[in-house]
Write a structure and sequence with these properties.
- The protein is of the alpha+beta class and about 140 residues long.
- The protein folds into two domains: about 30 residues; about 100 residues, Dimeric alpha+beta barrel (Alpha-Beta Plaits, 2-Layer Sandwich).
- About 45% of the residues lie in helices and about 25% in strands.
- It has a four-stranded antiparallel sheet.
- A hairpin with a 6-residue loop joins strand 2 and strand 3.
- The termini are far apart.
Length: about 140
């Protein structure tokens, strides 16, 4: 009888331990990794506009960012604060319409007045992350 109770307790411990491991495995399998497009914005070759024209281009640049964000394509946008060659970043959602390929993202970038004017240039890189771990704070 003692042996049977001990065997039952051991079986229960093994079953419970397997359940916890299975639950952890299930949780890890549920963690979703999605593709995004990371865009590094750098100083372009054409930065000789007068201050009025530069301000007009910047206004259009910000309006374009807002439009892309409101369309669900752009998840993150922001400048660097050190006035170096790196000017800012964009992160596009690869699941959004018009963002599935590098070429589609490049077409979206060409709608930016600062890029079209040559004030900014860009590099596009595929990037993967869990949306649960990122993008939880409001608009860019």
């Amino acid at each position: 009888m003692k042996y049977s109770a001990l065997t039952a307790l051991l079986a229960l411990a093994v079953a419970t331990s397997g359940f916890c491991q299975e639950d952890t495995t299930r949780k890890n399998a549920q963690m979703q990794i999605d593709q995004y497009w990371f865009v590094m914005l750098t100083k372009g070759a054409n930065r000789i506009q007068d201050s009025v024209k530069a301000a007009e281009i910047q206004k259009g640049h910000l309006a374009n960012i807002t439009r892309l964000y409101n369309e669900g394509k752009l998840k993150v946008a922001g400048p660097f604060g050190d006035n170096g060659d790196w000017r800012g970043i964009f992160i596009f959602d690869a699941k959004a319409a018009g963002c599935a390929s590098k070429e589609e993202v490049e077409n979206l970038l060409k709608t930016d007045p600062a890029i079209a004017a040559g004030r900014l240039k860009y590099e596009i890189h595929p990037w993967w992350t869990s949306p649960d771990a990122n993008f939880k704070h409001g608009k860019p």
